[in-house]
Design goal:
By secondary structure, this protein is an alpha/beta fold. It has 2 domains: about 260 residues, TIM Barrel, CATH 3.20.20.80; about 100 residues, Immunoglobulin-like, CATH 2.60.40. It contains 11 helices and 20 strands. The strands form 4 sheets. An 8-stranded parallel β-barrel has the order 2-3-4-5-6-7-10-11, surrounded by 4 helices. Helix 9 links the parallel strand 10 and strand 11.
Length: about 425
């Protein structure tokens, strides 16, 4: 009897062991099959992204020259994330050929050629219906004395085509005072009042071999203020081609320039330059495209930068800047130190390091931008919000934040964006 009982026990134990081993070796399909009755699989939260009704206009200034005008070159420009191109063409036929190539590649042209000046209205009639036409380029860096003539030229264009924008680009505030017949502020005001274009564009290249130019933030603030008063958008630049006294572009320098432009409310961004101008006077080098029409290392930087900018376009396009504040011990002249936390923000501490804080609103949604003001040093910071908040990733993804104080590190020149 004892022997029978022992035998039964061995059989039961063997069966249990077999079942246990079989269970250890069993795997379920990762994403296939039905759940067991009475259980539900955990659902992954779908990733949300910021969206924009329109892309950021990104202009390639000094773009593809006439002797390199091909569809492939415009596709290369398009692949880098540029959607507007500006080249000054001589003969009208060269400009028309560029329009066709740009159209095939899906790029718009800021139209410029000799005939636009010498035979304005006939030229406008020829191109105003072209699908690749973005607008008309008038002049770079005019003086006050040029404004009346530019206004008359603009009127002649608008008589034939009132649909496409007209563009010119203003001096920065570090222009030699002898060039202007008035103060820089009056220069900007006179341009808006006299020429009456639908946007304000100015160039300023802040990153030099000696550091960041001190008047940059003030110049941006002035342009933003006067543009807002006139109800106009403004466009701003980043330098993408090294020359004296400007160093090679880096991801940090591009981010610093473009995110600062956007922090002040820029609605269009521009690269100076796309193609290497090749003049000996300034020693231009390392543009995104060299004089032989080949990509350089800067091309890859521009492509990555543009992809990042467009992924976050929903934050910036149509946004209203509520306030721009500064942290750290090096506050630019006429700028405001952050002394009181914005509504909805319970903590913001950059630990004495230099940063820019921009408060924006877009379609009823509040955003906070934090921009590092250094091209070579990262900064650490703590941040917390009173209510629900989310970060906006470089791919435009919206990631809800945990409650409480969060600590981060921001790379040189980089920008963190929060929705709150």
């Amino acid at each position: 009897m004892d022997r029978i009982i022992m035998t039964i026990r061995r059989i039961i134990a063997a069966a249990l062991l077999f079942g246990l081993l079989a269970g250890c070796g069993k795997t379920e399909p990762a994403a296939e099959g039905k759940p067991e009755e009475g259980t539900e699989p955990e659902e992954e939260t779908p990733v949300e992204y910021v969206t924009s009704d329109e892309p950021i206009p990104i202009l390639a200034w000094y773009s593809i020259p006439e002797n390199f005008t091909t569809i492939d070159q415009y596709r290369t420009l398009k692949d880098a994330g540029f959607n507007v191109s500006m080249t000054f063409f001589g003969p009208l036929d060269d400009a028309l050929r560029a329009l066709d190539c740009a159209n095939s590649a899906g790029v718009k042209l800021l139209f410029a050629c000799n005939a636009l000046r010498s035979d304005t209205q006939n030229t406008v009639r020829r191109v105003k219906g072209h699908p690749a036409l973005y607008g008309y380029y008038l002049q770079d860096e005019p003086t006050n004395a040029d404004f009346p003539d530019l206004a008359a030229w603009a009127d002649r264009i608008r008589e034939v085509d009132a649909s496409h924008p007209l563009y010119l680009n203003l001096f920065p505030d570090y222009v030699n005072p002898s060039v202007l017949s008035t103060s820089y502020e009056d220069y900007v005001k006179d341009f808006i009042r006299i020429v009456k274009l639908p946007m304000v564009s100015f160039d300023y290249y802040p990153v030099t071999t000696s550091g960041i130019r001190k008047s940059w933030y003030g110049n941006l603030a002035l342009i933003a203020r006067e543009s807002e008063k006139a109800g106009l958008p403004f466009w701003a630049f980043a330098l993408s081609t090294a020359h004296n006294p400007y160093p090679l572009p880096t991801m940090a320098s591009l981010r610093l320039q473009f995110y600062t432009d956007l922090a002040f409310g820029a609605q269009g961004l521009q690269y100076f330059t796309y193609w290497n101008p090749g003049t000996d006077t300034w020693d231009f080098h390392d543009a995104p495209i060299n004089q032989q029409g080949q990509k350089t290392a800067t091309y890859a930087l521009a492509k990555a930068m543009n992809q990042e900018l467009q992924a976050r376009a929903g934050v910036f396009m149509g946004a209203k800047v509520k306030e721009v504040l500064f942290t750290g011990g090096n506050i630019p002249r006429d700028m405001t130190l952050l002394t009181k936390l914005p509504e909805g923000v319970s903590k913001l501490d950059t630990k004495g390091q230099d940063a820019l804080v921009s408060l924006l609103e877009n379609k009823g949604v509040r955003y906070l931008m934090l921009v590092s003001r250094s091209v070579d040093k990262s900064i650490a910071y703590d941040i917390a919000f009173s209510g629900a908040a989310a970060s906006i990733g470089k791919d435009g993804s919206i990631t809800p934040l945990k409650k409480g104080i969060l600590s981060y590190r921001l790379d040189a020149g980089d920008c963190a964006i929060f929705r709150y």
